[in-house]
Prior knowledge:
Glucose Oxidase, domain 1, TIM Barrel, eight-stranded parallel barrel, binds phosphoenolpyruvate, binds magnesium ion
Amino acid sequence: MVRSDSTREISLHGLGIAPGIAIGPAYLVKPGVESVPYYNLMPDAVADELARLEGAVAKSRKQIDRLREKSSALPQAAAEEIGFLLEAHASMLGGSRLMRGITRRISEERINAEAAVVAEIQVIADSFAGLEDSYIASRAKDVREVGMRVVRNLIDYTYKAFSGVPLGSVILAEELTPADTALLDPARIAGLATVLGGAEGHTAIMARALGLPTVLGIAGIVESAHTGDTIIVDGGRGIVVLNPSPEKLAAYREEAVALDKERRTLKRLRKLPAISRDGVTVTLRANIELPSEAANVIDSGAEGVGLLRTEFLFMNRRDLPGEDEQYQAYRAIVEKMAGMPVTLRTLDVGGDKLAPAFGHESFSSDNPALGLRAIRLSLKEPKLMEAQFAAMLRSGAHGPIRIMLPMISRLEELRLARASLMRVARRLKRKGVPIADPLPPLGIMIEVPAAALSAEGLATQADFFSIGTNDLIQYTLAIDRSDEQVAHLYDPLHPAVLRLIQMTTQAALTARIPIAVCGEMAGDPRFIPLLVGLGVRELSASPPKIPFMKRRIRNLAVSGAVARARAILEQPDSASIAQLLDEFNAGEAD
Length: 590
Ligand code: PEP
Ligand code: MG
């Protein structure tokens, strides 16, 4: 086993997600379940319960497969050890005594699946108790681990408030969902490292928004660390150091101080405009998930909100926020922006963003990223969409807003959504409820290749475009943005991606509608000359990125960027594109 002897320094590599250095005690998130529900089933509910169990077992099997895949990157001895263990876990999910017992309890005792699992684990553990054989003792532990994995997958809401975590801890976990990540308080938590998770998934995005130094996709971290171990998370380089030597600790402390100094220097740019060396203005706005982030927007120097991911209001709760609650949340952000626009995106639930309040039936799909996600769900649930439009329109009475639709792939979706928005506006006006006047612009995300390819047509009906490069790259290259196994293939500089960005930008410029980029590409100073060179004049990214983006724009000669973008579009592959881009950036470095 790769359990550390708690004094030896170990360096592990993963995906650097959010830059910065965190140094603190490790806090291992034990995948536990605080309370397991127990209830009896009606006779006609047994079949559904067995199907629910089957779904959770299939999910558990998939997780174990991914962990096995991941552990193969470890040194051979450790890989073998973990491999055996996970293989044993996987086989217990087959026709084992555990599974037979659970199935029998559901069918015969007619109790819910979670309760059946817990009861069966207990019986097996009791039958092993008293045997002194250490092999058998460890088998009993495995039965419990596998059983609790199934229970976790049966209970789809695991509210981990992390409130009991000691101040300044570094969170280590097998995996954190975007909803769990949204609960991390950067004032209490120093950093984050997990075994699973890709660089552009919503867990990564949330970690960046919180400004938490983060490394995802690190094999062996959970097995190697103990709660309380000293740990360094180097989010820029994608390195985690466990039990660092005094020399390494001192070097990292020094670097952390230097980074802090750089950040403070950049803060001075806050009040300066984002104008290039040759006088071109680029509007910088912020992406946020929660109303509590609104203060960070102002602090960062962004000119309003370019993307509010409203789906985060629907997470970590069992009920849906109604119109009034949403109105209060949007209004708080609009008021905080004091006249700067707020772009409110309608629900983008689905894919890797699940909200238990919808129940998992809505998302039971083998391909959730291609399933009932975003605008598709809104159009299927008109009441949900109308409540959201009503809340948004009402918040627009307090300051400028824009409404944005995610995952549009056809004109019809925009037409239907606009018709719904107009109906809601008429109803509110009839009732004398104050709403945005004139009605706010209704724009769309361009994040599905079909939308980029038909951008000309969409531009005739949309009031603005915002390119969501995270999904556009995922769908163009067929790379799951949350899967660390294919993260190395996730390539913003692929010629196909750039061609789609260029087509979209051209269509918007020709139709004279505003065009923004709000995917993660917008927040990376390396890509800014390319996006601006292609004609984009509005960029939106998480607040901590804004000062770095502004610095890049203030050093940029847009005329040069335009010529370089033209040359880049003629390249056959991303290697030559990267070379042209990096040369350009190096030539402008101060
Ligand atoms: C995107 O896809 O680029 C985007 C901004 O939306 P999200 O990351 O919420 O899917
Ligand atoms: Mg998206």
